[in-house]
Write a structure and sequence with these properties.
Layout lengths: L2 H20 L38 E4 H4 L17 E4 L9 E4 L8 E5 L2 E2 L20 E8 L13 E7 L5 E9 L3 E11 L3 E12 L8 E13 L4 E16 L3 E2 L17 E17 L4 E18 L4 H7 L5 E23 L2 E24 L13 E21 L2 E18 L5 E20 L2 E12 L22 E15 L2 E18 L6 E18 L5 E16 L1 E2 L2 E2 L11 E9 L4 E12 L2 E3 L21 E2 L3 E11 L4 E8 L7 E5 L9 E4 L4 E11 L2
Parallel strand pairs: 4-7
Antiparallel strand pairs: 1-6, 2-3, 4-5, 6-7, 8-9, 8-36, 9-10, 10-11, 11-12, 12-14, 13-35, 14-15, 15-16, 16-17, 17-18, 18-19, 19-20, 20-21, 21-22, 22-23, 23-24, 24-25, 25-28, 26-27, 28-29, 29-32, 30-31, 32-33, 33-36, 34-35
Length: about 700
Amino acid sequence: MRFSHAIYLVFFILLLSAPLAAQESSSSADSEYTISSPVSLGEIDIRGIVRREELKSTSATILENKDVSDRVFYQPLDMVNMSPGVSIMQYGEAGMSPQFQMRGFSGRNDMAMYLDGIPLHDNGHAAGFTDSTVVIPIEIESVEIIKGPASVYYGARSAGGTVAVQSIKSGNFNRLNLRYGSWNDINVSGLIARSGEKLSQVYAFEGFHSDGYRANSNWYRRVVSGRWTYNFSDKLQASLNLRAYNSKWDSAGYVSAKLNTKRGWVDDGSGEGNGGKRDRYDARLWANYLISDESQLTYYLYGTTMTFTRYQRGDRTIRIILNNTYPNMTEQYNKHQQWGTGLIYNYKGQIAEKDASFSAGFTYSKDMDDPRAEYSIPWGMGRDRVSGPTSKRTFSIANPGVLAEFSYQILKQLNVRIGGRYDWLDGKLKDELSGATGSAQYKFFSPKAGVVYSPFDNLDVFANFGRGFSMPTYFTLDQKTGFFNSKSNLKLSRRDQFEFGYRYYPLDWLGIETTVYQLKTYDDGFTDPVSNDYIQAGQTTREGIEFSLQAAPAKNWRVTGNFAYMEAKYDKMMSGQQDMAGYRLPWVPRKITNLEVAYAPETGLGGRVTFRWEADMLYQDYPKTLTNGQPNLSYGVQQKPWKAPDKGSLDIQLSYIFNEKYKLIFDAKNIVGKAYEGYAYGMEWNTGDYLVNYTNPRAFYLTFQINTDAK
């Protein structure tokens, strides 16, 4: 679907719905739910940014604690699948973090995730991009899922989208979840909240263990957190957050798609195969000063340190099985540190008797990998290092930035916002083995704008533009020097997004939202086939439509669903000697569907049925021949697009609510039972086979929830 055609479709839907919008909304006397905008405008603490108006003019999704606290997630990142058009690439290696994808973007340089303002990414590839397992679902207060570079408050790593998780800040209650499930899955999590006149305290913890559905797939993780908020006066408030996390796992690795597909494993059980471990510690200080009833000043400071080790042998599966050979294992070791600070001013009041808001501030962050090293460990030596590293690098990138945004209610029905941010990036790289060094400096301005038109109380029409950037990865090297540096003239890749849509609530119990978008990229990098130089001239286009519906047709009943369709293609790109212009982008499903029907009484038997379907994705849109007419042997014998299987899941949950304190939940996940390919890569020479890891097959869980008020 072309972008212009999608806009026509939205206008057509609006024309059909306009007569209803002019009528007085009716309500269902039997309905417990009142459907409201999915964008909450309450006071949300996002890195000190509060009372945010900008989300009204975007397609952002807001999830609350009640949306996620009683669901079974293999990893907390799974909750983003509830937003239209979002998908997750599961590596299926326990503690190895998956990637999440929005509008065709994924990876560490295009997707951002925050927990209470602390970034959850890390630089090293071995570290798995974004680790959501430090999040305890029971502690979640809200989750913002922002598509593309729409927000002025996020710069680096947010061009494809941002997930901002906020934990519960205060209260007087206790929560405890006890869960047991298939493969000896044990999960115990809890939260204790206490609020006094001056001091509020929130403590959360989680302990998890799983044997995994395949051999040699144990996974342990533990996380504890604490938040202390102190009210010095009616104007001054400060908060301290601390978090500690530990994870350790073994993994069965990748298996051949044609050999022993579902339950194949790589090692012999000696512990010499895939796995890893991770330790992480976070601290955050936040202070807020009310200058007046209309303005405030917010300061934050955070720091995080993490060590990560990954053991990998699984990419040689076919050779092991067929040839009975045992290659060396690679240990990837990464020590990552990051700290950041910021000062933000917020105003919300009136100017010339019209509602207005203004935000401005300064942010700074610095990432450091010291070191990122690799070791080669021969078969038979377990996981102990027997020699020094085969590679060892240190890397750092500093990112100061300034931001500003202004919104104004020009008319009663019309609000506009305009803003932008300016980022500086200073990267340094050193090869510890050779002593060679390199550096790179970048500057980028990201303008943002949005408009919301509300002709009726139950209809918002919105549009926005956002520009963002993606950094060259630090292993993108200058072909002549071996390191990126100021002479290599690498640029930040530009991403421009246009959104147009509406949110319409014709009845108190019915809400509909439709968004069309176009997202174009510029200056994407590739290796020139003639000069062998790394050049930045690639371009892509992603455009699509997202539709969602939420309804409460009867008391205690709720129906939600969404559908997303996207076309993602290369406009200009080279792969070897092949011009990829016009070919589809890999790893991007064209169609994603979610549907859920839930019944939630105050007491007694309830439940939900959830269906999800991802369809029409290619691992690679292979050209049939090279430009010189010769067969494309670089991908083995396969001379056609490498299509991924469609993925579907059907989950059923039954719950019994004894009273407001106690609840028993039974979950049957993926009841069809098929373990779909979560991730696949590579192509074995002359076989056409590829390596794959699978999502979990059918599983069952029993959860007991306790929710009590504090005495």
